[in-house]
Here is the input.
Amino acid sequence: MRLAKYLAHAGVASRRASEELVRAGRVTVGASVVRDPAWPVDASSQEVSLDGSPVLAPAGWVVYALNKPPGVVSTARDPQGRPTVVDLVASDRRLYPVGRLDIDTTGLILLTDDGELAHRLTHPRYEVPKTYRALVGNPPVRESALEALRGGVELEDGITSRARVRRLAADVVEITIHEGRKRQVKRMCDAVGHPVIGLVRVSIGPVELGDLGPGEVRQLTEEQVDHLKRIGELHPHM
Ligand code: URA
Here is the structure.
């Protein structure tokens, strides 16, 4: 692991601040001062110290699944002081939400201290499928609307990619998209004449919301985390 990342992950400071600590010559690896933030550290055999005090090796990464309630923002910090998804997870790690849900959207959001994984899962090139259930106005949703949603609808920022869509009730559709544009599902449903009244995300790749209640948190198993990581490796198309 690179030195600055090691420090950030050990909870010393943010990644950028850790880089500065390294450049300032305050960090030693073994017996030597290292000023290169990208210096590779083998945590199993080398001791890293800051200002002479050992920095304990970071534990493994964690990924949490949260059922985001309405009214909670999905950024790490909110300038307006509203509750954030990070506030809902009792953890002393520096957690990043993976992607965003609108403030009124509920359901599955992942949080992790693994910045690389967070980046991978949100980058459009990895195409992680995300499934939403939308309660919509103007029922019943007809086959023609479902077909339009499947094939791609014209939005102001371009046509949407193919989606998996099924009707669960006259006024409920389940939509799986591989993109993550702002308010995408709401705009797609709007475009076919069915404004969204309520939206919940039920899965991200292999991870399902399941019976997680609003505000509840579950830590993903190692197997699930590995699965998520493999999606990032298998599907890049750039
Ligand atoms: N699509 C939306 O419109 N809103 C969300 O929060 C997520 C996907």
